[in-house]
Amino acid sequence: MKVRKGIVSILLFSTSCLLCNASPRNEREDTLQQNKPTFFQRLNNKLDVILRSFSEKDTNYIEPQKYDFTVMAQHTQVYQYTRVVADNGSVLTLSPDVVFKAGPYFGWKWLFLGYTIDVKNFFKSSAGTYFDISLYSNQVGLDLYYIDNGSNFKIRHLDIGKNIGTSPLNGKPMEGLSERSKGFNLYYILNHHKFSYPAAFSQSTRQKRSAASAMAGIGYSHHTFNINYDKFVKQVTDNVPEIGTSIGKDFFGDDKISGMDYRSFTVSGGWGYNHVFSPCLLASGSLMGGVSYNVTESAYQSGFYSVIRNISFKNITLDFTARIGLVYNTSKWFAGLSAIMHNYNYRTEYFRTNNFFGTLNVYGGFYFDFKKKRK
């Protein structure tokens, strides 16, 4: 009996020890399961790491702003120019009137949102639509644009040779013309730890020491240019009778350039430089050149295989994007100006075009909501 009691006691003691040891372990496992991040928490952490990588910087060269929010007022002037050269040497130069826009902007870190109104046409409707936005981070920049001029183009110069003066047409609205462009440019800044585009163009940082950087990017654009042949011929002959109806063949080449619709795919590269005159004064300039392959709408709709099979060096053109900025930034308030200019080209066996689109911005603003320094 004593032996049985001893065995029972040992079994009870062992069981109690196992239960005691098992309970804390289960509690620890439950605690670990409760503390394990959810899918959305892991996703948020990864996104946070990615977003932080876009603002990585060498603080010996770039000073982060001490504020999260910005309020700014901006005045914008929009310029556009189109030059069409026929294969026989005739030249038609067109451009709409300069657009004057103004409005408020609100910024959070490196993101600026705002709205501008057409000051010149505030009390009347305008046939054109202009949308142009640029986003800047330390590593990546993005330009988005949509331009629909409607019937806003005016004739600035027409030259068909034969010593015929066409000055009566200068400044006249171009009848029967519609033009539309849309696209994007995406580029990567190689020396983003020391060179800051935001310091010059979005004021979310300050450049402390002069620095330069190479850049590389890609782009896409879609351009549509249509001329109503009969309306144009009538307008020209009504204003310059001595030209006669031969203007059609003299310039259009049997109506072969009355319309064009093409897409451009671009690979670009360039260089930018920020020069620091003083702790508060910065000048910035950059130039990117792109090699573009132009595809007509009909070829584009035929499919990728058709485009590759019929690839031709005649469809390759050079495009350019330039940026200039001057800003005075005290880390509490700022003022400055910037200009962004895009140049696009296109050619066929019958004609070639040169398109320019640019904006000039004058702005001023201040920061608020002081950030607490991280420990």
Question: In summary, what is this structure?
Answer:
The protein is of the alpha+beta class and 375 residues long. The protein has helices spanning 2-35, 39-53, 197-201, 229-239, 247-252, 297-302, 304-309; strands spanning 62-64, 67-86, 91-95, 99-108, 111-114, 117-118, 129-136, 140-148, 154-159, 177-189, 205-207, 211-227, 259-276, 281-296, 316-329, 333-347, 351-370. Mean pLDDT is 78; it is low at 1-13 and 15-20.
Describe this entry's structure for a reader:
It is a single chain. With 375 residues, the chain is α+β, with helices and mostly antiparallel strands. 22% of the residues lie in helices and 49% in strands. The chain has a 15-stranded antiparallel beta sheet that branches. The protein has a two-stranded antiparallel sheet with strand order 1-11. A hairpin with a 3-residue loop joins β15 (316-329) and β16 (333-347). It is globular and about 80 Å long. 27% of the residues are buried. Residues 1-13 and 15-20 have low confidence and may be disordered.
